[in-house]
Amino acid sequence: MDLKLRFQLSTMMFLNYFIWGAWYVTMGTYLGTTLSFSGAEIGVLYGAVSVAALVSPFFVGMIADRFFATEKILSFLHFVGGILFILIAQSTEFSWFYLFFQIYMLCFMPTIALTNSLSFRNLSDPNGEFPGIRVLGTIGFIVAVNIISFSKLEASEMMFYLAAASSFVLGGFSLVLPKTPPKDKGQKVTVSDVLGLKALNLLKGRSFLVFFIASVLICIPLAFYYAWANPFLNELGMENAGAKMTLGQVSETVFLLVMPFFFRRLGVKWMLVVAMISWGLRYFLFAYGDLGALEWMLYGGIILHGICYDFFFVTGQIYVDNKAGEEVKGAAQGLITFATYGLGMLIGSYISGWIVDYYLSADGLTHNWKEIWMVPALGAMGVLLLFVLFFKEKKQDEKVEVNA
């Protein structure tokens, strides 16, 4: 890969995830403390991310792959996103905030698939070169969260202005990315192709059906972490909570590197089991941790993110790729994305908001976090039990090749 292409793709990934990191971790704190939104309202707003995740495959399949060059779509979406972030920063009423934020998420979520697609189509050896490009996205996310945290902006609308500025920068930079014309221009497209309905045949297999249901269910407790971990840590009084939460992204990177070692020894089923145990354990640690002698529990819950994410999501993606035939591999991955980031996270976002409101103190200023975290902890353990009892995969099907 020549230096110019590496710079272009790496900068694109860095900025795309920098934008996400500027608000995603800390928005819950801003909404609750500065705008005084209720838990249910915050849950609905985080649910907007999942609504966009449900819609974005349709957008990419119907429009991006067939009518417009990828770099031009990225530029348009990020320029619009920058304008929307300015409107979001100035919105203090829930109805307006939700309207602008939902439209923004409908613009942003497709950029995840589009940046991946643009990279794959311009790399000569995607399998060998893409990881080195994609890791810049994780670095961008970490850098953004740390800037917000150390600048004491976790409860400030300035996070959205930073995201807006970054969106405008990436909107302009996208115009100098490699020209990437629509790959399916002129081809006939059906609703079945776009929605990936052919992948539904995989659900006829018992093991895949159990995996699909477990994927939906485990993402319900998962949503508690993304929406409420930062407000929780800030309410406890942890300094630079957002920055410390990026230890989870560091952990994610480390465990991704050592995954092949564990995969060969554990196989699909037990990798997923370890992930589900880790989700439950994380919430138990949050429930009983404090900023005194048990502060290590809070850090433990954050660092477990690597196992929680990699061992479940990456293992699941590999399992799906192994089970699906060549014609439906893409559709099958879309089906699992629908189950996890879409359906499961959407339900979890709404439920988490209701639970947080239920355990709000009489003064309206603090929460009974122990009881709140016990809900997803017990939920994750319940999903674990169901998965262990009903997921019966043949040994030869569990052995999936994982390249170090």
What's the SSE pattern?
A: HHHHHHHHHHHHHHHH
Number of helices: 16
Structural class: mainly alpha
Main sheet, how many strands, which sense, barrel? none
Which stretches of 5+ consecutive residues score pLDDT under 50?
396-404
The CATH topology of the largest domain is given as: Growth Hormone, Chain: A
Offer a quick outline of the entry.
By secondary structure, the protein is mainly α. The chain has helices spanning 3-21, 27-34, 39-64, 70-89, 94-122, 126-150, 158-173, 191-195, 206-236, 241-245, 247-288, 295-303, 305-323, 329-358, 369-390, 395-398.
What would you say this structure looks like, in words?
With 404 residues, this protein is an all-alpha fold. It has 2 domains: 1-181, Up-down Bundle (Growth Hormone, Chain: A), CATH 1.20.1250; 195-404, Growth Hormone, Chain: A (Up-down Bundle). The chain has 16 helices and no strands. It has helices at 3-21, 27-34, 39-64, 70-89, 94-122, 126-150, 158-173, 191-195, 206-236, 241-245, 247-288, 295-303, 305-323, 329-358, 369-390, 395-398. Helix 9 packs across helix 14. The two termini are 20 Å apart. The model is unreliable at 396-404 (pLDDT under 50).
